[in-house]
Design brief:
The chain is built from seven helices and no strands. It is mostly helical. 56% of the residues lie in helices and 0% in strands. α3 runs parallel beside α5 and α3 packs antiparallel against α6. The protein is globular and about 55 Å long.
Length: 189
């Protein structure tokens, strides 16, 4: 995908384009990292690139459940565990899980006749109360959530090896090298 979402003919496709862009930005922060590097916490935070990608996948799934009217119950422990990449997690497993969730999200959104349809937000102390929340609001919130965590992942990745988002995107997507963009490559060992 180019560095920004492409134009689209409908509101749904525009939102899905920006959602894809933020998914890619978050996922590409882990491109080329070893499993240990995906779990690394090199900043003052306890966050890791792999944990952030996993959290993004789980968050999108929970919000899609809200759109679909499915239960979204979970505990504080479940929430905290969602930020920790398990021992068998790898970039490839995260990429596959993200692609699966993206397909489910895209299919649901494309099936909806009206992004202005009302949704009921889950009960939680941090959730806004009252009517007026719509599918559109949920989609923008997912984009906001993934954007925030893509920024966190960028900072963590820069601490690991200095790589930045556009160079990682160029490497992951096979962009040719140009005078202004050099795709990321692993450091020579």
């Amino acid at each position: 995908m180019p560095g920004t979402a492409p134009p689209a003919a409908t509101e749904a496709e525009t939102l899905l384009g920006f959602l894809r862009q933020q998914r890619d930005g978050l996922l590409y922060a882990g491109y080329g990292l070893t499993p240990d590097q995906l779990r690394a916490t090199p900043t003052a935070s306890t966050l890791s690139v792999g944990g952030l990608v996993q959290h993004g996948i789980l968050t999108e799934a929970q919000w899609v459940d809200v759109i679909a009217g499915r239960s979204t119950e979970g505990s504080q422990d479940d929430y905290a565990a969602g930020f920790r990449l398990g021992a068998t997690g790898s970039y490839e497993t995260l990429r596959a899980r993200q692609a699966e969730q993206a397909a489910a999200t895209d299919e649901l959104v494309r099936s909806l006749p009206d992004l202005g349809a009302a949704v009921t937000l889950p009960e939680a102390p941090w959730m806004p109360k009252g009517p007026g929340y719509t599918v559109r609001w949920v989609l923008v919130h997912i984009i906001e959530e993934l954007s925030r965590h893509a920024g966190h992942a960028d900072i963590i990745r820069e601490h690991i090896d200095g790589a930045t988002m556009y160079a990682l995107m160029a490497a992951a997507e096979g962009w040719p090298e140009t005078p202004w963009m050099k795709p990321w490559r692993p450091a020579a060992t």
